[in-house]
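agent> step 3/5: call structure_predict on target 'Xaa-Pro aminopeptidase' (Pedobacter kyonggii).
agent> reason: downstream docking stage needs a structural representation; sequence fetched in step 2, passing through unchanged.
tool.input:
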Amino acid sequence: MKYPTIDQSLFILNRKKFTNNLKNNSLAIFNSSDEFPRSGDQNFIFKQNPDLFYLSGIDQEQTILLLFPDCPNPLYREVLFLRQTNDYIKVWEGYKYTKEQAKAASGIQEVYWLEDFDNILHSIVNYAEHIYLNTNENDRYAHEVPYRDIRFIEKMRAKYPLHHYERSAPIMRNLRAVKSDVEVELTKKASAITRDAFIRVLKFTKPGVKEYEIEAEIIHEFIRQGGTGHAYSPIIASGHNANILHYNDNNQECKDGDVILFDFGAEYANYNADMSRSIPVNGRFTERQKQVYNSVLHVMKESIKLIGEGTIWNTYHEQVGEIMTEQLVNLGLISATDVKNQTTAWPAYKKYFMHGNSHHLGIDVHDFAGRYTPFAAGNILTVEPGIYIPEEGLGIRLENNILITASGNVDLMADIPLEAEEIEDIMNS
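tool.output (status=ok):
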């Protein structure tokens, strides 16, 4: 790994919180992510199952975690199974965890090779009444491919059909939404790397550069500082491209007079930053560009004030919609008549601001959390209003990451340039 070892106390605590939510006499199993083929003889870069990482800190393929707090054999109450290395793997793939390294990383004392899993499971599974299995229940995702968790569920149900099967995901959804101090610090590190990449880009950008050249500057800074890479496919959208919400071709020339919409963030130790900024290619906003920019900035600042303990997701977004509506009227993009004739299903502001204003952030960029659960201390949320005007070839989005605490909000990106004048000053320094 490129990042320093994370203190095992985080994962020990996470396992304790998880097992405290299990029914009596329950066994839980978590699998690592699949390895996906990229071409005839290559896989895509491995990305660990976030739930397995959250509970173990193990960042390696072909890993299984077994938790059985009421197991009559104390040796098997917490067990980690790893892919065993050999001389061939050492030569061709390099580093893999030893048993001792896995113990040090996870705090789990019983570590076995993967080939022992079936025998150990079979020796204890019939003493459990409930079996908790995991799937991806993130409501932003719908799977088409039967990934490892799905295949494992089918195997378990065929082999042990009379057990009571339970879902781990509802427990994980509640736990992962509330970040510990260690998780907050890892997110801050990802944000700091993202800040430095953005400042690098401000000093690099000028008319005539290609979007992909800017992308290269970003990844240079991410990797230079020990980040894993991009938290998600970066958006470097100049001019009209900014009106494509998930634009990531990043292959156009940045032209004098245009604005570039950035949406990128660093991944560090599996935790993510998620930042959006909009900058003038030539270093100076036009009067209209700055007018739209400041309207988005106003919505952003007011939105941050609305987030706190007990905030309800739908109510919050309705309030943000009202703030945005006022700004769009002031900009002459919608009229009072448009507002009067709007429907609940499609408010007038949606013509120019069509996406949500916030999502949870953590090990997943769109982190696993309850859509209908009130916000709580320890949540990290994005705030990302935008105004997109295709007829003007202009799109502005601004996004920071906000930590909710019992005493108020903390902007984890407060040190990243945001005001239009500050961005202009850095670009022209």
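agent> step 4/5: record observation. The domain at 181-428 is CATH 3.90.230.10 (Creatine Amidinohydrolase).
agent> proceeding.
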